[in-house]
Design a protein that fits this description.
The chain has a three-stranded parallel beta sheet. Strands 4-5-8 form a three-stranded antiparallel beta sheet. About 45% of the residues lie in helices and about 10% in strands. It has helices at about 20-35, 60-70, 85-95, 105-120, 135-145, 190-200, 215-225, 255-260, 265-275, 290-295, 310-325, 325-335, 345, 350-355, 365-370, 380, 390-405, 410-425, 430-440, 450-455, 460-470; strands at about 10, 40-45, 80, 100-105, 150, 160-165, 170-175, 180-185, 205-210, 235, 240, 305-310. The chain is mainly alpha-helical. Helix 1 links the parallel strand 1 (about 10) and strand 2. The N and C termini lie far apart (about 85 Å). Bound molecules: glutamic acid.
């Protein structure tokens, strides 16, 4: 059973109870890679039967995050809440086959039962009181309107084996399995019934899901067997942990997928990063694009032990991907974070920052001075150490005159002109460049100064020098 004989069809099946987090994105990615490599289908299913935990807007957010990562699904998403009648029919079918039964125990009785089990230090599970109600009596009570749930009838003995593509063979003792609920009293199915019915209806060949479901897997196998359906292959993905070996969470600095977008990460970098959570190509390669991943992904190489997420690695990867974008593409992405600034104005400054950006979110601050003049100066920034207002105003004035006289506005002549000037007035070029940097950009940390001045153009640089001088005057 390790390889399914069915054509490859897999699915990502989030519950819309919040945003798409990294663990979910990794499950989706592994399903996607597997499907694309095998030329199969990757489906999306919305598991919204736990009505109490639904969060409005979550489905849309999850879909947006998947789309941003490039994990495009095939076919219409299946939405479980629209299939209530189908699950009810499936539960009836199981009751007819004797593989499930109606349980009329009240919540109060079940609570009492569990309390007693706890007191006796026994595992908490259903004591099967309703398992022996004769079918006619069960049908009569249901028809009379008595509330019930439907429970799966577990075998009392024997073992059930799962041959998992990641975890290997896992053998479960049937006597440990609880007669869990398949259909709740509100008529909604639990995950166990709904996933089995939907995977069958969608002709899913491989169930690739989080290992939180591993303990339930034997019940799932027995359920599929009871329906006499073909059994898909299973692959349970281990947890993603933070560096402290606790489940990866916000307190580690992890963000939901769309928050990474806000923070200026590239989807390419996120995809590359999460692909390596528990998987590696088995070589030294660290930068793998989506097509590389599709070509090289292999479910057998997914580690059964938990993956440790290293957030610093993501920063490094993000820088690598920023460097690899074409300047046109980087300009387009930066412009999309800068609101009003058109892409044609961003394009000329891209070469100045492409090597320095760690995230796209740094770009607006780093680049704003190209598009808007500094709206004020701080004297403590404008004055180099040991230089007073008068000397600095005179130096800026000298720069203005010298630059004014340049016939060619390019890196080499501008730099030579300024270095000669510094020498002439007896300033260290470092000090002169610092005063100029602040005068031209309003900031102390910027992309390379001369290149920035060249891009800004002569008239704009001269205008800014005049403004800086004017700002110094009242201080004199
Ligand atoms: N809704 C389940 C979850 O979010 C899906 C598990 C599965 O992929 O079957 O854990």
């Amino acid at each position: 059973m390790s390889e399914s004989p069915l054509p490859v069809r897999v699915r990502y099946a989030p519950s819309p109870t919040g945003a798409l987090h990294l663990g979910g994105a990794r499950t989706a990615l592994f399903n996607f890679l597997f499907a694309r490599q095998r030329r199969g289908q990757f489906l999306l299913r919305i598991e919204d039967t736990d009505r109490a935990r639904l969060k409005p807007g979550s489905q849309e957010q999850i879909q947006e995050a998947l789309g941003w990562l490039g994990l495009n699904w095939d076919e219409q998403p299946v939405v479980q809440s629209q299939r209530k009648e189908i699950y009810r029919g499936a539960a009836d079918e199981l009751i007819g086959r004797g593989a499930a039964y109606r349980c009329f125990c009240t919540p109060e009785r079940l609570e009492l039962m569990r309390a007693e089990q706890r007191a006796r230090r026994q595992p908490e599970r259903y004591d099967r009181r309703c398992a022996t109600i004769p079918p006619e009596e069960s049908a009569r009570r249901a028809a009379a309107g008595e509330p019930f749930v439907v429970r799966q009838r577990m075998p009392a003995e024997g073992t059930t084996s799962l041959h998992d593509l990641v975890m290997g063979t896992v053998v479960f003792r049937n006597e440990t399995l609880d007669d869990h609920v398949l259909l709740k009293s509100d008529g909604y199915p639990t995950y166990h019934l709904a996933f089995a019915v939907d995977d069958h209806d969608s002709r899913i060949s491989h169930v690739i899901r989080g290992d939180g479901w591993l303990p339930s897997a034997p019940k799932h196998l027995l359920l599929i067997e009871a329906f006499q359906w073909p059994v898909p292959a299973f692959a349970h993905l281990p947890l993603v942990l933070g560096p402290d070996r606790k489940p990866l969470a916000k307190r580690h600095g992890a963000k939901d997928v769309l928050e990474y977008r806000e923070a200026g990460y590239l989807p390419e970098a996120i995809v590359n990063w999460i692909a390596f959570l528990g998987w590696s190509p088995g070589t030294e390669d660290e930068i793998l694009s989506m097509p590389d991943l599709i070509a090289r992904f292999s479910i057998d190489k997914v580690q059964p032990s938990p993956a440790i997420a290293n957030l610093e690695r993501l920063d490094w990867l993000n820088g690598q991907y920023i460097r690899r974008l074409s300047p046109d593409e980087l300009a387009r992405r930066i412009a999309s974070t800068m609101g009003e600034v058109p892409v044609e104005r961003v394009r000329p400054v891209v070469p100045l920052v492409q090597e320095r950006l760690r995230t796209l979110a740094e770009a607006p601050d780093m680049l704003r001075f190209f598009f808007t003049r500094p709206d004020g100066y701080r004297a403590d920034q404008l004055l180099p150490k040991g230089k007073d207002v008068e000397a600095t105003a005179a130096a800026i004035d000298a720069c203005e005159t010298a630059l004014q006289g340049l016939t060619e506005w390019a890196h080499e002549p501008v730099e030579t002109c300024l270095r000669e000037l510094a020498h002439r007035i007896g300033w260290a070029s470092r000090d002169l460049f610092m005063a100029l940097r602040v005068a031209v950009t309003g900031r102390t940390v910027t992309p390379p100064l001369i290149e920035s001045m060249v891009v800004l153009g002569k008239p704009e640089v001269l205008a800014r020098l005049q403004r800086a001088k004017a700002a110094l005057k009242p201080l004199n």
